[in-house]
């Protein structure tokens, strides 16, 4: 399975495309916005060349890897030859279901359809297709080229063959995989959302500053990144959508922190907007909680 397509050229989509191209896949990255594709192309090239300069990527492989990626706004062109399509749009069940419906019509019969979702139901997404046995969720982590894990979540009708092929693709991408039975939030998002939401509640209650909460988690519990830093990286709007879904499906303990809701309403979306729990305008520093 050498032909891999990615739908959506945002942070996760371009990270998956980057990793797949370096791993030897022929990749097509699709987005409906031409400017988004151009931005993704520049970001992928810049990141790959920086990684080569730092010794993380073989410089001899950079040009070949970059040539492995094609860019298009046409969904049909992107997926016609794909062995696997990884949908990487934002966490909206209606949008993902609509894309899977289109993919089912455009893709070859053998093509596996995977959703890079962190919380949503692969069974519900696959219900829009005539191939639920070949639909699955692959939950990648940000930044994709650095993070070693992929959660593989089987839906109600996902076949053992599809799981096995997806695990093989994960191995070719240089990742470790864990197989998870479908349940809201899977493994990592359930845990991560709880920790992050509690950190937000503590900040709101004045227990400690954002910087000290993150420092405590890093030095006291050996987390590589603090929960508030991580939320900024993921995007506070994305985190809020995840929390709202888990609150609806799993109950009261996942009620989103009011501070998170206020920040999203104010446009403080984290690193991508320049401000979240920290300011990214000039340097990484905590902002005053209001």
Question: How would you characterize this protein structure?
Answer:
This is 3-hydroxyacyl-CoA dehydrogenase. Pathway: Lipid metabolism; butanoate metabolism. NAD(+) binds at residues 8-13, 31, 91, 96, 118, 142, 272. InterPro entries: 3-OHacyl-CoA_DH, 3-OHacyl-CoA_DH_NAD-bd, 3HC_DH_C, 6-PGluconate_DH-like_C_sf, 6PGD_dom2, NAD(P)-bd_dom_sf. GO terms for molecular function: NAD+ binding; oxidoreductase activity, acting on the CH-OH group of donors, NAD or NADP as acceptor. With 290 residues, the protein is α/β, with parallel strands linked by helices. The chain folds into two domains: 3-181, Rossmann fold (3-Layer(aba) Sandwich), CATH 3.40.50.720; 187-273, N-(1-d-carboxylethyl)-l-norvaline Dehydrogenase, domain 2. It has twelve helices and ten strands. It has helices at 11-22, 34-53, 59-67, 75-79, 93-106, 122-126, 160-172, 188-205, 210-221, 227-234, 236-250, 258-265; strands spanning 3-7, 26-30, 69-72, 84-87, 112-115, 135-139, 149-154, 176-181, 278-279, 285-286. The strands form two sheets. An eight-stranded mixed β-sheet has the order 3-2-1-4-5-6-7-8, with helices on both faces. It has a two-stranded antiparallel ribbon with strand order 9-10. Helix 8 (188-205) packs across helix 11. It is globular, with a radius of gyration of 19 Å. The N and C termini lie far apart (51 Å). The mean pLDDT is 94.
């Amino acid at each position: 399975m050498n032909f891999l397509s990615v739908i959506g050229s945002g942070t996760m989509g371009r990270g998956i495309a980057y990793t797949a191209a370096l791993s030897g896949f022929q990749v097509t990255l699709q987005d409906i916005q031409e400017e988004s594709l151009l931005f993704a192309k520049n970001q992928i090239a810049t990141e790959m060349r920086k990684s080569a300069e730092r010794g993380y990527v073989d410089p001899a492989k950079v040009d070949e890897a970059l040539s492995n990626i094609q860019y298009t706004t046409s969904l049909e062109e992107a997926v016609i030859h794909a062995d696997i399509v990884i949908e990487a749009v934002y966490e909206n069940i209606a949008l993902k279901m609509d894309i899977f419906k289109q993919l089912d019509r455009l893709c070859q019969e053998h093509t596996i359809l995977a959703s890079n979702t962190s919380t949503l139901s692969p069974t519900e997404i696959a219900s829009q297709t005539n191939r639920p046995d070949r639909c699955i969720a692959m939950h990648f982590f940000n930044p994709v080229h650095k993070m070693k894990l992929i959660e593989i979540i089987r839906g109600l009708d996902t076949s053992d063959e599809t799981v096995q092929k997806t695990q093989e693709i994960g191995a070719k991408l240089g990742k470790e995989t864990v197989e998870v039975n479908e349940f809201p939030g899977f493994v990592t998002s359930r845990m991560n959302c709880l920790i992050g939401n509690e950190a937000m509640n503590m900040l709101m209650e004045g227990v400690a500053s954002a910087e000290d909460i993150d420092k405590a988690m890093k030095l006291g519990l050996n987390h590589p990144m603090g929960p508030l830093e991580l939320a900024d990286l993921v995007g506070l709007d994305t985190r809020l959508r995840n929390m709202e879904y888990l609150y609806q499906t799993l109950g009261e303990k996942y009620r989103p922190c009011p501070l998170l809701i206020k920040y999203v309403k104010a446009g403080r979306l984290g690193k991508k907007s320049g401000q979240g729990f920290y300011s990214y305008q000039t340097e990484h520093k905590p902002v005053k909680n209001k």
